[in-house]
From TrEMBL:
Pfam families: cNMP_binding, HTH_Crp_2. The lineage of its organism: Bacteria, Bacillati, Actinomycetota, Actinomycetes, Micromonosporales. PROSITE patterns: CNMP_BINDING_2, CNMP_BINDING_3, HTH_CRP_2. This is cAMP-activated global transcriptional regulator CRP. It comes from the Bacteria. InterPro entries: cNMP-bd_CS, cNMP-bd_dom, cNMP-bd_dom_sf, Env_Response_Regulators, HTH_CRP, RmlC-like_jellyroll, WH-like_DNA-bd_sf, WH_DNA-bd_sf. It comes from Pilimelia columellifera subsp. columellifera. Residues 151-219 form the HTH crp-type domain. Gene3D superfamilies: Jelly Rolls (2.60.120.10), Winged helix-like DNA-binding domain superfamily/Winged helix DNA-binding domain (1.10.10.10). Keywords: DNA-binding, Transcription, Transcription regulation. Residues 17-120 form the Cyclic nucleotide-binding domain. SMART domains: cNMP, HTH_CRP.
Amino acid sequence: MEIRLADGGDPLSGVTMFAGLEPEVRQRVLAAAVPRTFKRGQLLFVENDPGDSLIVLKRGAVAVFRTSTSGERAVLSVVRPPDVLGEVSLLDGSARSASAEAIESCQALALSRGAFMELVHANPRILDAVMRSLGGLIRRLTEQNADHVFLDLPGRVAKTLVRLAGESMAPMVTIELNQSQLAEMAGGSRQSVNQAIGSFAGRGWLRTEGRRIVISDLIALRRRAGMPDR
């Protein structure tokens, strides 16, 4: 599931937010950014932390989630390269509205709020990309709310698996994710999610290998989730 950005000296050329900038501007961004690595299970930031940096993912995957007062977690999205995290807090200067955890080993770049705002002032068109990013976030949250109204739990599990598979067209897709994390993403109990996974496995749509889920029939999962065939 690893995705690599463009090789060479300009890793930002594949990032939507920066792709429209001149190469020399992107090089200035790189000069101001700090390389970061995160191990699987490590928190990148926590809800209510200062929103002091934009994080550009180069490799890996990050789950963005909220935590209830009782300690239950709800995963809002899974971010993969070439996406970014933290743009909301950078724009309004507020604290982080959610937490982020590496669900795969990650390599990233951290750009401070000061450097980001200087970039925006010098290149106002970057706000177009920021607004598209925020629009995508709003659409995802709206769709999630609709899923909880219109889809049963197995349907939400199927849709979560399809989203985690991303744009893969391979006959088999391996997702490294334990069933507790999957339950957080689908909005159900671990027991209920295990039952849904067992049902899908019994139909030959996937199989489990320890912490891995190997999907063998994405089309069937898309149909179970009420998603259109490609």
